[in-house]
């Protein structure tokens, strides 16, 4: 009898349930009744405090297209994994103990960057771990595409695509802010797929003068509107030149909800355009 644990951690995204279903079906197809699956609830919290459910094949039915995660999720900072909880509990020791209490042969962990670090910590502690890379950012080393990315790219692309008609009707500049604090894969794919005219990503600091020049060029060419796909972590050349300390001090008193609103104000002042900001999620 093989005993396998499932755990989903971090932010939710599409395909978490589909991925668990795929792994479960493979296990049942290969091992039949010789496998037991245990689902830890609320991410690493469930493993720490031994909160789990004994799952059956029926639990994985009807979830292929269901969003979120049937096991629930929570954020447990990797930096604090070795810090005891408020009651003095050693979290790493507790996870190891609960893994062994259930006599697990393997623990399948679905999550992003932080989840991956904690999964590797457990591997180093001697547990059998399989980490499945989940993140809409598509920024986990060693995999071409993380699950959750394509679904997010499709939705962001549709959002940009739908804005074309209202932007054209009113001759506006639209800034669509897309998730991506440190990497711009999602914004790049959505921007190209949705037909954005300008794409700004964290990896390439932008020049506000060139951005405004591109908008004015389109205006002179009678294009009538401009759509910008902007990653939430996009940064100007001026800010990129600051030291970490200087940048942190600036952001401590940052007057805008996000970079898109700062861009909107600068573009409006320099070009006189009617600028709108849309933040899909």
Give me some keywords for this one.
10 helices; 281 residues; Rossmann fold; 2 domains; alpha/beta; 41% helix; 5-stranded mixed β-sheet; elongated; 4-stranded parallel β-sheet
3D structure, described in words:
The chain has helices at residues 16-31, 44-48, 91-101, 113-124, 149-170, 185-194, 208-220, 237-240, 244-252, 259-271, and strands spanning 2-8, 35-40, 52-55, 106-111, 129-133, 173-178, 198-200, 226-231, 275-278. It is built from 10 helices and 9 strands. The protein folds into 2 domains: 2-133, Rossmann fold; 150-278, Phosphofructokinase domain (Rossmann fold, 3-Layer(aba) Sandwich). Helix 5 crosses helix 6. With 281 residues, the protein is an alpha/beta fold. The strands form 2 sheets. Strands 3-2-1-4-5 form a 5-stranded mixed β-sheet, sandwiched between helices. The protein is elongated. 37% of the residues are buried. The two termini are 44 Å apart. The mean pLDDT is 94.
Beginning-to-end CA distance, first to last residue = 44 Å
Beta-strand level of the residues, as a percent range? 15-25%
Q: Kindly state the mean pLDDT as a whole number?
A: 94
Question: Structural class, judged by helices and strands?
Answer: alpha/beta
Note the main sheet: 5 strands, mixed
Strands in their spatial order, largest beta sheet: 3-2-1-4-5
Task: Say how many strands there are.
Answer: 9
Helix-strand blueprint:
Blueprint: E1 2-8, H1 16-31, E2 35-40, H2 44-48, E3 52-55, H3 91-101, E4 106-111, H4 113-124, E5 129-133, H5 149-170, E6 173-178, H6 185-194, E7 198-200, H7 208-220, E8 226-231, H8 237-240, H9 244-252, H10 259-271, E9 275-278
Parallel strand pairs: 1-2, 1-4, 4-5, 6-8, 6-9, 7-8
Antiparallel strand pairs: 2-3
